[in-house]
Design goal:
Nucleotidyltransferase, domain 5; 9 helices; homodimer; 319 residues; alpha/beta; five-stranded mixed beta sheet; 2 domains
Chain lengths: 319, 319
């Protein structure tokens, strides 16, 4: 562990940027959330991160000597060793941006940048209710589906920093076309976007439902499903079903101790996790002996901030 | 590395048991192969292994002081730490057999038992043409489909010693029933048995082909496909196709440096590997940057013997 007791964690999301000062038990002080905004060029991204950092540090100016550094979770392909955003799916103009160096120059603290799904996994691994298992796969379900794999007390980034792209496991042969260029990817069937797309299509076809085209989020679908809306329930359980196929393949190939479900759908709690477990244990070869645990995120929206800060605080991590 | 320069490797297969004295460069001396036979109770299994060991050691009796130990690759679920065969798919009566201890008592050398697909992967990792990559997944295609995962210079066994069951990744929703209890498992579509099953069905349906029900191995199908037999080619390429779906999911989730294809089909060489690569690179999300290499086994039938011996010779391995 790092000798200093605090680090700043930043979670750069598509809608909000969240930040805070995190202590070495995972507690967040001075939580700040600002809107990501629609103009997302590199200068603006840097400015927003610096804005958050200045807020957090000025609130803790007497503390600055105790702050070990800054961790930033960012969506996309990250070269963690060099602190560079190689590319980011929703920011096509952003290529090879040296974010860690640029922020470090301004803030005069060490800075680490990591893929956002990896920081969420790392947060759950270091500070979640089920912390420090032998191995963990954390699946973040939102607009897309991301994943973070923890093995040997380290984030497993793979050969070219792209490990954990669980949303692009192929779960349906010749399935729906995916933005990645392939077909039948998990995120086309189990992400929040997939649920909304299917609901929209059904409503437009005239299927009877309490769902409303003007207000249609995955959370709305969950609420309607809970109230027994037939369409909402069908869509919700279809998402569970396809995720269970992906998870069964992950368990059979990698046999992790625990799978954590994070992101928006985790808010549905046991309404989502219970049918998911039932299906996974039906399909997974290894289910009879030392079952892989399947749980929902216990840090919720804070997992990314905490995980980002723990990139710095847990100095055992091989960055 | 172990200070002693030799170990004995044994590869216990469904058809043959192979053994030999392996030096620390991976060379095999006094290779021995005997038939596994049909009577496979535990006593018989032990006797056959002891028979091979005595043959190898007596041929090298002056060497015994230089032999560091014995590694045994065995099909099934193995508790490597305790040297116990928990269960073996084709030997249902074999449960919790303390093979390592029983052999060690007789032979007075350290004995390690490991899952056979893992020993093949370990052999390729330690001594194959593409040795010591950052990470490797070795897929063994035969009657079933097995796998071995090497991460951080170690076999990744997972939480309950079942990692690498790649044959039970689900690649077809509601697909063919598998012996594991699930449906649509990869080995129902891409194993040698699957190819033979599909050929038999087609021949019985009267499909025109040069294939013959009385002599129908995966190798016969490969030979006929090479001679442009339409049915054989279709079956062969279908196996390639489904394997490519599984490999794409493995690359997208684990991003290994290299994937090695071992087992019988590897003998088809580029006739199998070339279309496989083409399909995988079409589906795999990460293919544009630092492509995962896909190669055929370079140790062939000897991978299991060498890998078993290297369980002992490579003392860095965390057993």
């Amino acid at each position: 562990m790092n000798k200093k007791k605090f680090a700043i964690g930043i979670d750069f999301g598509g809608t909000n940027i969240r930040g805070g000062l995190v202590d070495n038990t995972g507690k967040i002080k001075n939580y700040i959330k600002i809107s990501t905004g629609s103009q997302k060029n590199y200068q603006e991204i840097k400015n927003k991160i610096i804005f958050i950092l200045n807020k957090v540090i000025s609130k803790n100016s007497s503390f600055k000597k105790n702050i070990a550094g800054v961790g930033i979770g960012f969506p996309g392909l990250i070269d963690v060793q060099r602190g560079i955003i190689i590319k980011s799916p929703n920011l096509p103009d952003l290529r090879n941006a040296p974010l860690a160096l640029d922020i470090a120059k301004k803030i005069e603290l060490p800075v680490v940048v990591e893929n956002d799904a990896n920081t969420i996994a790392w947060g759950e691994y270091c500070c979640g209710k089920y912390k420090n298992p032998e191995s963990m796969i954390c699946i973040t379900i939102g607009t897309g589906i991301g994943g973070g794999i923890i093995i040997n007390n380290n984030i497993w980034r793979g050969f070219s920093n792209t490990a954990g792209e669980i949303g692009h496991m192929i779960i349906k042969e010749n399935g729906i076309k995916c933005g990645c260029g392939s077909r039948g990817c998990l995120e086309q069937y189990a992400s929040a976007s997939a649920m909304i797309r299917d609901a929209e299509k059904a409503i437009k076809r005239g299927v009877k439902t309490s769902l409303n085209l003007n207000k249609l989020t995955a959370f709305d679908i969950y609420k309607a499903a809970k109230k027994n809306d037939i369409l909402a329930k069908k869509i919700f359980l279809s998402s569970v079903h396809y995720l269970s196929l992906g998870i069964a393949s992950l368990i059979n190939s990698f046999n992790p101790e625990i799978i954590v479900i994070a992101g928006g759908v985790a808010k549905a709690g046991s309404f989502y996790i219970s049918p998911l477990k039932k299906e996974v244990y039906m399909y997974a070869y290894t289910s009879l002996i030392n079952k892989t645990k399947i749980v929902k995120s216990t840090l919720g929206d804070c997992a990314g901030i905490i995980g980002s800060a723990f990139l710095i605080l847990n100095a055992d991590l091989n960055l």
